[in-house]
Specification:
Blueprint lengths: L5 E2 H8 L3 H10 L7 E2 L5 E3 L1 H16 L4 H10 L1 H27 L1
Antiparallel strand pairs: 1-3, 2-3
Helix pairs in contact: 1-2, 3-4, 3-5
Length: about 100
C-alpha cells in the first residue's frame, strides 16, 4: 500500500465489497477505525484503517462472527487475527500459482 489516504471507494475495492458496507463498518467500529474527513466531508482512511477493515472482513465474512463478536475478538487478540489472515492470503497465492501451472500443462 503506497497511498497516504484511501477513499471509501478504494477500501471497498480492496475488500471486494460495497461502499455502503465499508461505510457501515466505519460507523460500527469507531474504536478501531478513525477516518479523517476532507473539505467535502468525505472519509479518508489511512493504511492502518485499511488493515483493520481487512481484519473485520476476515472475522465477519470468513469466520462468520457477528459484528459484536468481531469487536470482542479485535479487543482480545489482533495478532491472532493477523496470523490467520496471512495464512489465508498465502493459501490464495498458492492456489493461484497451482492454477497457473495447471493451465500451462
Amino acid at each position: 500500500m503506497g497511498k497516504l489516504y484511501y477513499s471509501i471507494g478504494d477500501v471497498a475495492e480492496i475488500l471486494g465489497e460495497n461502499v455502503s458496507l465499508v461505510r457501515f463498518w466505519s460507523d460500527t467500529f469507531p474504536r478501531f477505525i478513525r477516518p479523517k474527513r476532507n473539505a467535502k466531508g468525505n472519509r479518508l482512511f489511512m493504511a492502518d484503517d485499511v488493515e483493520m477493515f481487512k481484519r473485520i472482513h476476515f472475522l465477519v465474512k470468513t469466520e462468520g462472527l457477528t459484528l459484536e463478536g468481531a469487536a470482542k475478538q479485535l479487543k482480545r487478540d489482533t495478532a491472532k487475527v493477523d496470523r490467520s489472515i496471512r495464512v489465508l492470503e498465502s493459501l490464495h497465492r498458492i492456489r493461484e500459482q497451482l492454477e497457473s501451472i495447471r493451465k500451462s500443462l
